[in-house]
């Protein structure tokens, strides 16, 4: 990490995962998730398939899956 807080991501990784990432603090680490090319379009498609599910249920599943994935690494 540079003094300015910038993080260098190697070209090989950028080619595979893209150039934009979400930074998620979790416990004693940070996790980088690649950002989709068109996140709004992706969310619209996901939202259409979840119309009949209560938001609390969706939120709970999202957190559970995210934490499980982070714990695997």
Structural account:
It is a single chain. By secondary structure, this protein is of the alpha+beta class. Helices cover 49% and strands 16% of the residues. The chain has a two-stranded antiparallel ribbon. It is extended. The two termini are 21 Å apart.
Question: Rounded to an integer, what's the Rg over CA atoms?
Answer: 15 Å
**Largest β-sheet summary:** 2 strands, antiparallel
Question: What fraction strand?
Answer: 15-25%
Q: Order of strands across the biggest sheet?
A: 1-2
Low-confidence stretches: none
Mean pLDDT: 87
Q: What general outline do the C-alpha atoms trace?
A: extended
SSE pattern, N- to C-terminal? HEEHH
Distance between the termini: 21 Å
Number of helices: 3
Explain the layout of strands and helices.
Elements: H1 11-17, E1 21-26, E2 29-34, H2 39-49, H3 55-72
In short:
The chain has three helices and two strands, in the order αββαα. The protein has helices at residues 11-17, 39-49, 55-72; strands spanning 21-26, 29-34.
Keywords:
73 residues, alpha+beta, two-stranded antiparallel ribbon, 49% helix
